[in-house]
Amino acid sequence: MSGEIVNRVEKSALVTIDLDEINLPDNIFEIDIKKWLFEGLFLKEKDFRNSIKNHNWSAYTDVYVYVHCSSDAIIPTWAYMLISTQLENFTKLVTIGNEKKFFEKYFEDTINSIDFSIYVDKSVIIKGCSDKKIPISAYHILTTKLKPLAKSIMFGEACSAVPVFKKTS
Fold this sequence. Notes:
Helix content: 25-40%
Number of strands: 7
Strand content: 15-25%
Number of domains: 2
Order of helices and strands: HEEHEHEHEHEE
Radius of gyration: 22 Å
Shape: elongated
Largest sheet: 4 strands, mixed
Oligomer: single chain
């Protein structure tokens, strides 16, 4: 025995995907419909449409926006549609829902833009520890994309990975 320490993980054919490496945008804006409601509770169509018409939508150029209502008001679907049609001319991404929904959509879009062909017949570890709040749905989407391609999918770190999927021949 030579006494040499060998890093078997480093020499393995494992490929690691770290969702922590996805750059999160720092220009995320919230639009709360509540500010355009009568007493924060009721949508008056004429007043609402006037507020939308007079709002400075260009302030959202090249940013990310999520639109929601923080009150318990019942907002008609068309109200969100009206806002979306104004925002889509300026923003990078518009989502309807809270900040959590925004990040779910952001991660979904980012994962869907990945070229997964490099993972064909590879053993893939999806890194589990993260400094960011990565939505659980991102791990689901990633697994769904990898499953038809990868030889195996694990979760965690190379030294302590949990098997998730293994292709059978």
